[in-house]
Amino acid sequence: MSHDDFPTDRPAVVTCGLPYANGDLHIGHLRTYVGGDVYSRALDRLGQEAAFVSGSDMHGTPVAVNAEQEGVSPEDFALDWHERYAETFPKFNVEFGNYGHTHDETNTELTQELVRDLDEAGHLYEKEIMVAYDPVDDQYLPDRYVEGTCPYCGAHARGDECDEGCQRHLEPGEIEDPESTITGNPAEYRERTHEFFAVSEFADYLSEFLDRLEGTPNARNQPREWIEQGLQDWCITRDMDWGIDYPGDDGEQDLVLYVWVDAPIEYIASTKQYSERVGSDAFDWETAWKEGASDEFPEGGEIVHVIGRDIIQHHTIFWPAMLEATDHAEPRAVMASGFVTLDGKGFSTSRDRAVWADEYLDEGFHPDPLRYYLATNGGFQQDVDFSWEKFAERVNTELVGTVGNFLYRSLLFAHRNYEDGPDADALSEDVAARIDEAVEDVTAAVNDYSVRALGDAVTDLARFGNEYIQRNEPWKLVDEEPDEAERVIYDCVALAKAIAVLFEPLAPEKSERLWDQLGEPGSVHDATVEAAGEAPAGDLSEPTELFEQIEDERVEALNEKLDARVAESESDDGGDAGNDDDGGDDGSDANTEDTDMSDIEPLSDDRISFDEFQELDIRVGRIEEADGIDGADDLVKLTVDLGAETRTIVAGLKQLHDVDDLPDTKVIVLANMEKAELFGVESNGMVLAAGEGADLLTTYEDAGPGTKVK
């Protein structure tokens, strides 16, 4: 691993969190996989050698529970879902170099080998622990067969994770008031011998690792709290018969490895399978993953994990400790995405309140607009709210109105006026400089791990193109200044070629179609950013519009279908969501169930007068600058334009928002809040936000900085 800017000479591996093989995919799941695919393709555009890999998580209690309910074996159940996923991802142009699964021979062998290495190095030990046991059904209850109360925050929790509260990983025996999810019986704790990985020995290493780690801020900041609180050793075995056998088990315990041992090892297994298919000369998996496997790169390759934010702990604590203990390369970066909500509410699979992957395609929509929406709607670590209205607005405004409009009007004019394509000695200086700037923006976006900025670079370039053609009006020059008209359109065709190259990571299919319309040789998928600045050389074909407008009537019809489906589902189950965990190691829809009304803080009975309200000076502000405060895990120093003056305000947003995305955000500020000094910075006001996720309050339309809220 290096910390040099991409592209580097080292082999890179981009991975996505493994989906549990136990349920349909919806667009909430797709956010992580689209993000990983976009990032991997962007690395390819820079000329970085990279393998994009993932696989289905076949093991764990969710699979076993659901298989039992359907009366089939866990293997048959999980393989069926694995095959469906392998068919679904390409439909959204998510193209893994290899997509495997955790139950195959490669992963089984690598997992047992790595666990043996941990044992031989002295990092494993046996320990008697209390395990939940159903005395009525006479069986031990591993993780997801148990529910109860989180010992840390008091929220309702699964046996392996406080999924509804503090998000902490829970060890066997920790959950309070345990209850069997199989029978509903109260469970009791009994002693049982299990294997533990001494994660606590790696606390110093992990703290230093987080200092080096790149990616999204939440992936670096969230784990620090767990280290500061003191790391607990990790139980790596479970009492069940579905999974990879613990290699040291003598058969008496019937232990299998915990799913979070073999799941991340699938990243290595899938890379190995990719290497075996393309040949080690094309990509050497050992150079990428093993320290010392290459004399040229003894520290290994560039490993980038793209995950959901609810599995940060596994990828920044457990997994790097395993890698360090077994002489594997540590991850260079972890990109942790936010969740996807629907019209401001959480996805609910039990209530059928979701936009399913197949449903989106069945409606006749192309995959690339959804890819663009998921990748560019907010910073990667922020939650994305999907609605058909918002989706249509982004498609109509940005893809149709900006990108598509420039491409179609330019290429149609060129095709009709220049049989073999427009010709000029060279690009205009300002156009060449603008293309170079867009390439620099794309390179910066890759190194900032910002898929949103990748999209912004393209739409900004198309916006420049629209302004350029409108300013020069070649249709007025054709008769009186034909050479100048041809030069302008030559510039526009060059801009279109650059857009095709730079837009490929987000809209690969549409970019290939544009490449064909430009008559460029080969495939846009093989073009690097150098091609973006090269002169257009193809024979233009008659263009067609790349993106379709979504009409209001279509949005209304889609909403009616969704509302009817949700209503029918709620009437069928009495509105009870039950346990809505549909799995997904990527974490893309965890914790997005409707908030239980019992969790809402009751309204205050204490009232204030209108005069008291008038004393609050609440203003619209616009964030101009945002910088993290050294030594403060949560705090950001904001420079906020309040119209009459600019204020410095300190806000606890660092772990909840991408700091780089905060500038230009309109916010609501309590301007007459008492000043306070925080970490040496004077805060002059308070930015208002809602909920634990610090959902920033803003304005609906165009109220400018300084406008008073009343």
Automatic annotation (TrEMBL):
Entry GO MF terms: ATP binding; metal ion binding; methionine-tRNA ligase activity; tRNA binding
Needed co-factor(s): Zn(2+)
Presence of the UniProt keyword Metal-binding in the record: yes
KW Glycosyltransferase (keyword) present: no
Motif ('HIGH' region): 19-29
Record InterPro entries: aa-tRNA-synth_I_CS, Anticodon_Met, Met-tRNA-synth_bsu_C, Met-tRNA_ligase_1, Met-tRNA_synth, Methionyl/Leucyl_tRNA_Synth, MetRS_core, MetRS_Zn
Binding site for ATP: 349
Alphabetized NCBIfam families for the sequence: metG, PRK00133.1
Assembly information from the UniProt record: Homodimer.
Protein's name according to its UniProt entry: Methionine--tRNA ligase
